[in-house]
Structure formats: C-alpha cells, structure tokens
Amino acid sequence: MPLSDVEPRLDSADPAAQFAAYLDFYRSAVVRKTDGLTPDQLTTSLLPSGWTPLELLMHLVHMERRWFVWGFLGEQVEEPWRDHVDGDPHAAWHVPDGVGRDELVDALLAGGERTHEILVAHDLAARGAVGGRFAGAEASGDEAGAPPTLAWICFHVLQEYARHAGHLDVARELADGATGE
C-alpha cells in the first residue's frame, strides 16, 4: 500500500523498473516542492547550512548526470561539478547567474529520461565505465578497484534524492508554510 497518493504504485519484480519509478517519484517531489516559490524564495536560504532551494535543484540535476552519464556510461560531460562554487566538488552549491527554476526543472526531467534509457539498456550488475567519473581504480572507491555496479549507483542516487527531497520539505515549510506531498 502506498504511503501517499503520489507514491509509485508499481510493484514489480523488476528492480530496474522499481528504481525508475522511485527516481521519478522523488524527481516529481522536488519539482512540486519548488513550484510556486517566488524567485526570492528560490534564492534565499532559511537554513544554517546556507543552501537555497534553487541550489539544491541545481545539485540534483548535476548529481544524477555525474552518476549515470559521466559515471556509469563513462561519457564526458561538460562541467560535471558546475553545481559547486568554482567547479570544486568540495565547495558549496552554486547556481550561475541567469539560471532559473524552469531551466533546471527541464534539465532535471531530461536527466530522468536519460536515466530511464540507461536502466532499460543495461543490466544492474554491469559496472560503470572507466574513463569518465571513474578514471581508474583509485577513483572507484571499490576495494577491488572496479567502478560500482549500476545497482549501487541506482541505490546511491535514490538515497540522494530521498534525503534532499526531505531537506527541501523543511526549506519549503520555512519559506511559506507549505507542507505535505
């Protein structure tokens, strides 16, 4: 039984289909949580950590692309760390001037479509390619030196979305009192 009216109703023995459904669910939650916020609310932080809803949206766009396209497929992507100040993966989130919510929502949804294509075309046991995000054994984080499997990447990206959707719930409630789905 779904926890809410918007939770995926897919109950499949196909793990890739489940991953796709839940990634769509959390992507949609992020879009809903940013819908209706004013430009000022999107670019103002109400949290001690200092991030803004627009910065979180920018982060999610780039995070998914880093893991599935640059990571798993090994494709070169332009500015993989564009969501961070000066492209430094350890720096705070950042949105370049002139980038707005609509552009980021479009990019988030396009990234979701690309993720679907990857999940349909590849086995979850397949390992990420060496040459993109995973330059070699030293970059993989795996004791055996191999890049992570597509299943591991799916779990990681899903938990990133779930955690950040929860963060956005709090930011939205502080911004205008909106709660719920």
Automatic annotation (TrEMBL):
UniProt-listed SUPFAM superfamilies: DinB/YfiT-like putative metalloenzymes
Domain of life: Bacteria
InterPro entries: DinB/YfiT-like, MST-like
Pfam families linked to this entry: MST
The protein's name: DinB family protein
Species of the source: Isoptericola luteus
